[in-house]
Amino acid sequence: MTRRNAIKGAIGTAALTVSIPGLAHTPGRKPNFLFIMADDLGYADLSCYGRREYRTPVLDSLAAQGMQFMHGYANSAVCSSTRVGLITGRYQYRIPVGLEEPLENPDLGMDPSHPTMPSLLKQQGYHTALVGKWHMGRLPNFGPMKSGYDEFWGNRGGGVDYFTHKIAGANDMWDGDVQIEEVGYYTDLLADRSIEYLEARAQEADKPWLLSLHFTAPHWPWEGNNASGQAESERLDQQPATDDLNITHFDGGTMATYAQMVTSMDANIGRILTRLADLGMEQDTVVIFTSDNGGERFSDTWPFKGMKTELLEGGIRVPLIIKWPGLTAPGSTSDVPAMSMDFLPTMLAAAGGAPDPAYPSDGIDLHPALAGITLPDRTMYWRYWSKTQRAVRRGRYKYLKINENEFLFDVIEDPQERGNLKDRLPDVFADLKQAWIEWNGHMLHDPNARSYGFEPRHLADHYDWNS
Length: 467
What we know:
18 strands, 10-stranded mixed β-sheet, alpha/beta, disordered C terminus, Alkaline Phosphatase, subunit A
């Protein structure tokens, strides 16, 4: 069977049935949530989504035990913005911190007064923790423990060396608001800390919990968990920390190294899930795995075009796997589009809560989709300041604008976004374009200047819409 046919078999008609229910969680108990997010992982970077060069057996197994979404989307094509959408359950363009990427302005961050996923779950009796990447503002004004997390252990910036745990020459490892030093490969350390958290939660078994595990893998720098990765870390540690383009980002890397980074993350997730089961918490825990945006230079975004920083499908379509005991059918798939901001209303509904009415969620409760129910078409919006990109998807059609070029695509039949239908379907084109304009009128305007920003030219070669 060819790769194309194998994926079409998975995407195809989508097994939206619940004929084989999962084991139910403890009656009357609020579920725990283990939310795992990779960093810059492409849509097809897991073998269950079609990656051929390596295997990801743990996440493949998670998909076989739960539901695999074929239309999972990130709130943004870049990192911080998606994290803002995730933690607030809202379009990030409503909040100043959601407009800046990368987040370099020290006076900009996640407003501690804004309700968040962890703060709202705490109101429902949950213990909450973030292990891994924050990237939504610096101390003293911003941080995970100011935005609802009871515990934080990880890095505050956008990327960190996997061995020295530095960014731009400075240590970026924290336990709460205290800077610490650790020895080891960062992906391993995050798994170690997550296991410690689970063990602590098992001692207070009646209290539900949220563990947000935000890996930095497979984000740059390009370092695997081996001798060559250690050597690369030592080389990068000798480079000037003031390099404007940041040599840890734009220099080095191979496909083999990328495979090591992804498979290390997969294996460490396996360690965590094994310990979860050993502690007797598996059937009371919802496990969610996804990525913060589309893939970067070594990623596989097949069958899509585009990558991180772009609103082509490859920049915003991400893997999404959910195992919900008693709700998701083992080995099921869904064609229901889902976004990062949907997790907040979904979790709160299960916890017996709801979003703060003063800050209503733009996401949807995914419970019907998780039960195998087909939902009505929803309208989803994106924008990104670079190249004045705009996008909106409703059903099978997607409006896309890049600079002054406008397109209408059928992303079901044409996932590579090659056939422009705007002249063939002018009414659909006009309707989606107007919908985007009206939606954007309710969002904040992009700032006129930024502290710093990526340009697509800094990344890998890809399809050039101006050619």
